[in-house]
Amino acid sequence: MQNPLNFLRSVKQEIFKITWPTSKEALMGTVMVIAMAVVASLFFLLLDQFFKVGLNYLIGA
Fold this sequence. Notes:
The chain is mostly helical. Helices cover 82% and strands 0% of the residues.
């Protein structure tokens, strides 16, 4: 078991090693996530419509 003070010191050292993304990198990541969510939702919308038309054709509705 480690001394709590030594543990807190090592945590502090690890925090200083973190490299945070720049605001431009964070913005680009956010834009990419939103874009991929839109693309995925359009894909599944088209796939759903395709199955809907196909099933309506098969059951004759």
